[in-house]
Amino acid sequence: MIEELPAQCSAKGCRAGAVWALRWNNPKLHAPDYRKTWLACDQHRESLGGFLEVRGFLREVTPFGAIS
Predict the structure, then answer these.
(1) How many CB atoms neighbour CB 8 within 10 A?
(2) What is the model's pTM?
(3) Which of 4, 10, 42, 48 is the most buried (most CB within 10 A)?
(4) pLDDT at position 5, please?
(5) What confidence score (pLDDT) does residue 13 get?
(6) Any residues with CB less than 8 A from the CB of 14 and at least 6 apart, and which?
(7) Residue 66: its pLDDT value, please?
(8) Based on the structure, what is the number of domains in the chain?
(9) Helix spans in the chain (H)
(10) How far is it between the farthest Cα atoms of the chain?
């Protein structure tokens, strides 16, 4: 039997539950409509988003679970 683990923040060493989905892509590597997703807790939403934003990768931030 496979145990399903709860979604956790993508920040290094963080074990908090995911609250936000940061959807991004690297335009040098990915097609324009392709999205990768990092999950973030409230504490790391700004730092993870800033890391992606400064590189021009961040496309959208949505509440986790609202990804369609």
Answers:
(1) 14
(2) 0.85
(3) 48
(4) 78
(5) 96
(6) 8, 41, 43, 44
(7) 66
(8) 1
(9) 45-54
(10) 42
